[in-house]
From TrEMBL:
GO terms for molecular function: nucleic acid binding. This is S1 motif domain-containing protein. It comes from the Bacteria. It comes from Vibrio xiamenensis. It holds the Pfam family S1_2.
Length: 277
């Protein structure tokens, strides 16, 4: 079954002077121009293509990869605005993505870079974008556990911190006390569930919380020490940036962890770094 708005693997059924025809299932055949086809593509072979409808509602195949497929979020730049809405560059040269005025949370201006959710409008069958995310999130119970690893997408910045989309399904918040490293709208990263509140709101952390955080970091430090011959040039005096680059954790957490390893007799701390005992 062909999934419009997503990448499909289609078989070449015939060749023409200007391209190859692909079997698009219930939509019949679709042309893939030679300029977009892999070199040497022949009848009977298959190719991965992105499928969408053009302005005449005809099925189109391209080997270009969109910034976001249907059901995904992506960071896109507004390239034009008209009476219908705003158009963003979603990575397909021959077609920009429409964000209707009704799907804009605040008017969009040309040149602005925004986070967009791509979906298929049921009424028209068109692939469109939206900046109104709430109707796509928190529609299922948030059955998360503390310290559960999740995929995060930074969606908004506010006075409270950073709002993030969890596993493409729920809203969560990263408060300033849990922020380290550079965060920006559109960034994808791993995170952890810090707390699911009684009202259903979810607090997030970029590292494990509590004892689990310390245990996890301890293991990583010891493993890296063994790989590096028993020495790491990271002491309790090292910069937060150097520590984050090595372990994606805060300097405070690192200091507490190596302090614990020191008490356990597993390492010694010198001015130039830490040594495996």
């Amino acid at each position: 079954m062909i999934k419009v708005g997503q990448i499909n693997r289609l078989e070449v059924t015939s060749k023409a002077e200007f391209g190859v025809f692909l079997d698009a299932g219930e939509y019949g055949s679709t042309l893939l121009p030679y300029k977009l086809a892999p070199e040497g593509l022949d009848v009977g072979q298959s190719v991965d293509v992105f499928i969408y409808f053009d302005s005449d509602s005809q099925i189109v195949a391209t080997t270009e990869t969109p910034i976001a497929q249907v059901g995904e979020w992506g960071l896109m730049q507004v390239v034009g605005v008209n009476s219908t809405g705003a158009f963003v560059n979603w990575g397909i040269k021959s077609k920009d993505l429409l964000i209707p005025f009704s799907e804009q949370r605040g008017r969009l201006a040309e040149g602005k870079t925004i986070l967009v959710y791509v979906y298929t409008d049921k009424a028209s069958g068109r692939i469109v974008g939206t900046t109104k995310f709430n109707k796509w999130l928190d529609n299922t119970p948030a059955n998360y556990k503390v310290n559960q690893a999740v995929d995060l997408l930074i969606a908004e910045r506010s006075d409270l911190g950073f709002k993030a989309i969890i596993n493409g399904e729920h809203w969560g918040m990263i408060f300033p006390s849990d922020v380290f490293g550079k965060l920006f709208v559109g960034k994808k990263l791993k995170g952890y569930i810090k707390q699911v509140r009684a009202d259903g709101k979810i607090d997030l952390s970029l590292q494990k919380v509590g004892v689990a955080k310390m245990d996890d970091l301890s293991s990583k430090i010891l493993e890296l020490l063994e790989k590096k011959g028993g020495f790491l040039p990271l002491s309790d005096k090292s910069s937060p940036e150097a520590i984050f680059a090595a372990f994606r954790t805060s300097k405070g957490t690192y200091k507490k962890t190596i302090g614990g390893l020191l008490k356990q007799g597993k390492i010694r701390i010198e001015k130039d770094g830490i040594y495996l005992v």
